[in-house]
Design a protein that fits this description.
With 220 residues, the protein is an alpha+beta fold. Helices cover 36% and strands 20% of the residues.
């Protein structure tokens, strides 16, 4: 599994509540498609020369992974392999494959190769998932040891955690705040310039819908 991970691709660890670690990774052209879609609203038909992927580029893929894993679980619910394939959540991308190696266990892994076509762009993109194969007997034995009450509590905790991790949290990015007098505001017309402070980039922060929570960020 490790030998098949290309470090030029974007690597995302997948974690399970039981401690299992998988990995999902995308070729660079796939990440560029995410970036173009979320910044320009469309994907170019030609990939061109691919730039080196940044942390910001990779971060734009997290929303896709969350939706993908949720639909992945829904599609396989009740299936014969659902007990070891479903229930994973994504972590932030890691820079090198050795970070994946440090997190993985000694289980055997099953790989899934996926080739998708970007709508209206006529571009093929490749994704891969590696998940550890689990023994159903071991899982059943652990549930038997817990008893009915313990198993129910464990299942409830996993369900709550899964829904919490899948919840959408809307945040607004505020570049900076500029103070203007009412008379200046009344004179604003299309084409007028509002001057920002020289350190505006250092003032950027995230706030939630209430406007109370603030977290400083670095623009990329």
């Amino acid at each position: 599994m490790v030998d098949q991970i290309n470090e030029d691709w974007a690597l995302f660890p997948l974690l399970h509540d039981d401690g299992s670690v998988g990995v999902m990774y995308f070729e660079p052209v796939c990440i560029i498609a995410f970036v173009e879609s979320q910044t320009m609203g469309w994907v170019s038909t030609e990939a061109g020369e691919l730039p080196r992927l940044t942390k910001t580029d990779k971060a734009l893929a997290v929303a896709f992974i969350e939706v993908f894993l949720r639909r992945f679980d829904e599609a396989l619910k009740g299936g014969p392999t659902a007990y070891w394939i479903c229930g994973y959540r994504s972590e932030d991308a890691v820079a090198i494959r050795h970070m994946i190696v440090l997190q993985r266990d000694d289980a055997e892994y099953c790989g899934f190769d996926m080739q998708s076509e970007v709508v209206e762009a006529e571009r093929l993109i490749n994704m891969r998932i590696f998940l550890p194969i689990k023994e159903k007997v071991a899982l059943q034995n652990s549930k038997n040891k817990l008893g009915k009450t313990g198993a129910a509590l464990l299942e409830s905790e996993h369900t709550i955690r899964r829904f919490a991790m899948a919840a959408n949290v809307e945040m607004d990015a505020i570049m900076c705040k500029v103070m203007l007098s009412l008379s200046e505001l009344n004179r604003l017309q299309p084409g007028h310039l509002v001057h920002w402070p020289q350190d505006a980039a250092k003032q950027a922060h995230l706030v939630d819908c209430s406007g109370l929570s603030a977290q400083s960020v670095r623009l990329g």
